[in-house]
Amino acid sequence: MKQKTIQGIVIILSLLMINLASASGISQLNEEKTGINIQNLIGQPSQKIRSNSLTRLLNNILSLQKQIDLYDLLTSTIRTTCSGVEKTSKITFGMINAIDVDGDESTGINGNDIQVQYYLIPHIEIDPAFILGLKFVVNIQRIGEEIKETEFNITATLGNDLVSVGYWAPEKSGNEIPTHIQLSVLLFYNMLDSSKGFTISMEPTYATNIGNKKLVFFNSYTSEDTVQHSHFFSFDPPSKTQMTISSTKDPNEWNYKLTRNTEYDTILTMGRSRTLPTETKETILTFNKFPRTVSFSLRITPFSSEGGSVYYTSDSMYDMDVLIETNELGACNYAIIKNTPRMLFAEWLPVKERGWYHLEIDSDGTDISLLDSLENPTIDLSMYGVTDVDLTAFWNFTNPGDLRIVKDPSFHIDLAFIIGVWEARLDARPVAEEISVSWLTDITGYLTYDTNWQPLNQMDLLIRGSDTGIRTVAETFKAEDFRLDWTIWPPIEWNINSTGDIDFLSMLIEVYIGGQWYRLWPWV
To answer: Is residue 40 helix, strand or coil?
Structure first.
């Protein structure tokens, strides 16, 4: 039976929990319905409950090498780290369990520092879609003051590492462990479109002002025999938040819906990783100004060892900046999007020879940068103030070299590209649909321009390598097959010739040779 793990989990576990849960749904199981005495079961952890048909069916659908038994769902493993002390504890479904996390019997209450309770809740939605799910909920209460300001890490695991949730309170001035926090992860399956996903919720409570506190929430789950998905969500300061991430028909595209239920602003950093047998794929998103509600779709696709593509779409623009960090985009590991648009599709091959960059965007004004490093990048493809546009740039950053840009005629170009030692900067206002430049900068060289005789109201162009380059500043400029040829040595025998057509209100042309700029136009 070849079905996706999450689909099997949520359908069968929902039936299982409905069948097993009592009226309270938390602390007791109905022995009449199950035929199982929970106390006897807990007292015999090695017992395999294979007589239960639902459990057998669950194991078959999961198709995992490790077997999931009923007992695995009725106990949770709690792993904690506090003041350098690592501990592992077993807790029971629905019961309040006190745990000593620092190994010091003089702290907390009767030596215990926290109380932990977990339970499972079946989840069914009918409208607008038919969704089945299972929610893993963990309540953690700090009952002592002694560990309040220490670095603390806790993870609750269910089903032999099938799913886990936890949080980390880092060591930071003014930070503290929450007095209470509820963490939950809902695994769900949409019966109508066969999509799957999860909803993660975090609700922390502090005794003092939220101030400069910080909290990191994380979860993981196994979706197939060999694939583990892990996520983390860092809040600065912590916020009551709910996040839903769901799949689409494209395996590289996911839908996100994030809701912040607090009045104050917070910086949110969320990371996602997929661990496969041969590699781990990671993506981190940082929102500098997390709105009350934001929803979008994101697709990240590598298509070569150097290039990649990003597709982002939303029903509205958001006044926020997003930093994307990933190992799935070839040479460009970082994408910075400022003032997120309604739609953005970018793909690129950031190499010196036969490189290219394509951008489609629906926006009222967005900045986008693709970088190989956040500090001193050697690859930087940046465009500023981008509105509705469809643009493609092709280049050979060599000597001789060329740059060609094809664009929407209404688009004002403001770009800055860095590829190794080469930089290209262009500020060009409409109307020309195409701008082509080629060059050979040396003692004897040439420079060509072509706009297909369509005008640019303004053009400010700089292309420069380590010891070669061109610069052009012009107003009301248009050209067709225009070419300048020159010989500039010896100085007294300068020779400049031109062919083709060019028209301008004003124009300055300079070439950079051997560390020095030479003016070609106007000739003085």
So the answer is: helix
The C-alpha atoms of residue 379 and residue 251 are separated, in whole angstroms, by: 28
Task: Count CB neighbours of 263 within 10 A.
Answer: 7
- Alpha-carbon span 174 to 236, nearest angstrom: 12
CA distances from 269 to 16, 288, 317, 388 (A): 35, 8, 19, 28
Closest to 199 measured CA to CA, from 136, 252, 140: 136
DSSP letter string over 387-439?
EEEEEEEEEE-SSSEEEEEE--TT--EEEEEEETTEEEEEEE-SB-SEEEEEE
What does each C-alpha distance from 281 to 35, 298, 302 come to in angstroms?
44, 15, 11
Alpha helix (H) residue ranges in 21-146: 31-34, 38-43, 53-62, 70-74
C-alpha 235/C-alpha 390 separation (Å) is 36
Residues facing 347 on adjacent strands = 309, 358
The encoded tokens of residue 111 equal 């030596």
Percent helix, strand and coil across the chain, each to the nearest 5 = 10, 55, 35
Terminal CA-CA length for the chain: 82
208: how many CB neighbours lie within 10 A of its CB? 10
Strand partners, 437: 403, 449
Query: Which amino acid, one-letter code, is at 33?
Result: K
pTM for the full predicted model? 0.81
Report how far residue 12's alpha carbon sits from residue 264's, in angstroms, rounded to the nearest whole number. Answer: 40
151: tokens are 């670095």
For residue 13, give every residue at least 6 positions away whose Cβ sits within 8 Å of its Cβ, in sequence order, or none. 58, 73, 120, 122, 134
Per-residue pLDDT of 269-314, as tens digits, reads 999 888 877 778 888 999 988 888 999 999 998 776 788 999 999 9
292 close to 282: Cβ distance less than 8 angstroms: no
Encoded tokens for 506? 């004003």
Q: What are phi and psi of 144, to 5 degrees?
A: -130, 155
Contact 91, 76 (CB under 8 A): yes
Residue 178 structure tokens = 């929450």
Query: Which DSSP string do the residues of 225-247 spell out, in sequence order?
Result: SS-EEEEEEEEES---EEEEEEE
Specify the DSSP class assigned to residue 103.
S
Q: pLDDT tens-digit profile of 66-102?
A: 455 666 778 899 999 998 899 999 999 999 999 999 9
The angle formed by the CA atoms of residues 262, 263 and 266, to the nearest 5 degrees, is 75
Angstrom distance (rounded) from CA 408 to CA 410:
6
Please spell the DSSP secondary structure of 446-459, one letter per residue: EEEEE-TT--EEEE
Distance CA 291, CA 260 (A): 7
**Cα angle 96-168-7, degrees, rounded to a multiple of 5:** 70
CA distance 37 to 470: 83
Residue among 101, 33, 38, 107 nearest 75 (CA): 38
